[in-house]
Amino acid sequence: MALTSVTYYSILFNNSNTIKLSKKTIFDKIWDNHVVCTLKGGTDVLYIDRHYIHEVTSPQAFEGLRLRGTGVFRPGRTTATADHNVPTKDQHLPLKDKLGREQLEKLEENCLEHGIMHFGLNTPYNGIVHVIGPELGITRPGMTIVCGDSHTSTHGAFGTIAFGIGTSEVEMVLASQAILQNRPGKMRINVEGIPGEGVTAKDMILHIISKVSTNGASGYFVEFAGSAIENLSMESRMAICNMSIEMGARGGIVAPDEVTFAYMKGRPYAPKGKDWDSALEFWKSLPTDNDAEFDMELFFKAKDVQPMVTWGTNPGMGTEITGKIPLERKIDCGSIASFRKALEYMNFSPGEKLEGKEIDYVFLGSCTNGRMEDFRAFASLVKGRRKSDRVTAWIVPGSKQVEKQCREEGITAILEEAGFEMRQPGCSACLAMNDDKVPEGKYAIATSNRNFEGRQGPGSRTILGSPLTAAAAAITGKLTDPRKI
Amino acid sequence: MPTEKLSTITSTCVPLPSENVDTDQIIPARYLKSISRKGFGRNLFRDWRYDNEGKIKKDFVLNDSRYSGSILVAGKNFGTGSSREHAAWAIKDYGFRVVVSSAFADIFCNNALNNGLLALEVTEKFLEDLFERISRDPSTEVRVDLKEQYISVLPVGVPEKFEISPFRKECLLNGYDNVDYLLSIRDKIAEYENFSR
């Protein structure tokens, strides 16, 4: 294959690693450590430590390699799973949907051909890519991580630079283990104090996005810091970093600490023995230096956060569950035209109370809230109660491991007793590529990450909330403050 | 694999003034089930173009015969949401070569540029004026000159400078392909693996 551009590009090289800041943020430390070289105009060739792939955004990239007559450069650094279009029932049967089946088969075939580790359907480690990576210890502090999925930001919870990429970039990583990126700006969001009872990490991030807006962090990589973040579990930190993309950020990051190390220890693919000791030493060097500078810094108080829900068609259109939809003259989440369009789609009115709105569907799951902590929270509220008859519920674990642990901890039994059915893992109703679609005009409360028009099916109306808020609605059949249950 | 080159374009525009147009609107997830890069244009803005029965929604701009051209003019924060490159593929496949907005989501912008689709960022003022001009006269033509980095409304509009990274600009002008480039520096990358880590 002729390399048409080689001559031109070689002129563009200049020496990298010229940026030597005395005080570095965790972002600087990791980024600088991964720059292979810098092109004229500041575009970096960034080395990628870990690449995750799934069935929907990878087939065209492998096809590209094939057309170029080349292979995967570092197959050991890519891990595959099937998650986006898998059914959440009867996974042992062949997929009814021909196109979906073709994508799964292609992934299997590509992984086999190129020697890539693949956690396919019906294998013990299968699940949503952003659930299994951390859960298996494949994601580690200090890494650069990419995946053809915007919620790759999730892995930032471990002190990694992790972000979503398109399929052309998937092809770049497969071909060279590197990617071309411009260095984003640096933002720090500090959350201090202790949140009230019934307030989860999901409420914290929905609160932040409602203030920052759906594109307020565009062009930035966001470090989350402060006592309220430090006090969070790894699973909660993942929920926060997961949704950093929903305010437009390139990604989110939390410095690794004892909570991180305790989570990592003993995971199937985490370093062991001597490797663990040297890894730990490296990880401890990562946190942002005192006095390191950010391009922008924001401050929040955990005590100001209440259980949150969205009322519009982007994640920035949210408010307290006890609150009201804003009045036109008070909106700060975009233009009046988009406010009106969103309310028309949702069939809501300005100034309306949210509590008490009837709910038809409940979705517990996704890479935002499909982990053990989320299932424990949901179960804690529905235990000894009954699912409302008006509600259809999709209870979808994030992975086979979560599904297994729910069974072992008795959570599955609690859910079943309350009238819920545990499904099988996958992205499911978050983006409704499979059969889990909310019908036109119906209202769903979802623990996932996007309330875009039609996201959960054509005409579906999505309200985002925490697992506790979803559980409260599942019991009462309407939007309910979980603290009142 | 070189892509189509892009330098100067003069065209009428298709206006889409909505803000925060997300990738689920550009191409809904249920139309991502393909293992090819082709054919996504027919489902571009699917749920805004067609109703649930597949009937054309007459009030949507792509179904409005007054508007056509290879330049899509969109409201602020275009392409927000998922990383699906299918969004860029769909826009290009439909026939657009340039998307003009006052802000783009980061991943969408990369995806567009990697496919020879110019995501052209202008000031809010310029965008507002452009929408007004187009709505007053749908036959309004716009000229985009990538080499000189300006956009102007014809016949007499004041040219507005736009920013683009020198690297991206060279790629678009010459149809360079980033994968080819990265393949050509595999040795350098291997060296990095050996010595820098």
Number of strands of chain B: 7
Q: What is the tally of beta strands of chain A?
A: 19
Number of helices of chain B: 8
Q: Determine the N-to-C terminus distance of chain B.
A: 31 Å
> Helical residue percent of chain B?
25-40%
Question: Mind describing the biggest β-sheet of chain A?
Answer: 5 strands, parallel
Largest sheet of chain B: 7 strands, mixed
Oligomer: heterodimer
CATH names the topology of the largest domain in chain A as Aconitase, domain 3
CATH class of the largest domain in chain A: Alpha Beta
Which strand order spans the largest sheet of chain B, edge to edge or round the barrel? Answer: 4-3-2-1-5-6-7
Summarize the topology:
The complex is a heterodimer of chains A (485) and B (197).
Chain A: H1 6-12, E1 13-14, H2 26-32, E2 35-39, E3 43-47, E4 50-53, H3 59-68, E5 78-81, H4 98-114, E6 117-119, H5 129-135, E7 144-147, E8 161-164, H6 167-176, E9 178-182, E10 185-192, H7 201-212, E11 220-225, H8 227-230, H9 234-242, E12 251-253, H10 258-264, H11 273-284, E13 296-301, E14 308-310, E15 318-320, H12 336-346, E16 361-364, H13 366-369, H14 372-382, E17 392-395, H15 400-409, H16 411-417, E18 443-446, E19 461-464, H17 467-476
Parallel strand pairs in A: 4-5, 4-7, 5-6, 7-8, 10-11, 10-13, 11-12, 16-17, 16-18, 18-19
Antiparallel strand pairs in A: 1-2, 2-3, 3-9, 14-15
Chain B: E1 8-16, H1 23-26, H2 46-49, E2 71-74, H3 86-94, E3 98-101, H4 106-113, E4 118-121, H5 124-136, E5 141-145, E6 150-153, E7 160-161, H6 166-174, H7 178-184, H8 186-195
Parallel strand pairs in B: 1-2, 2-3, 3-4
Antiparallel strand pairs in B: 1-5, 5-6, 6-7
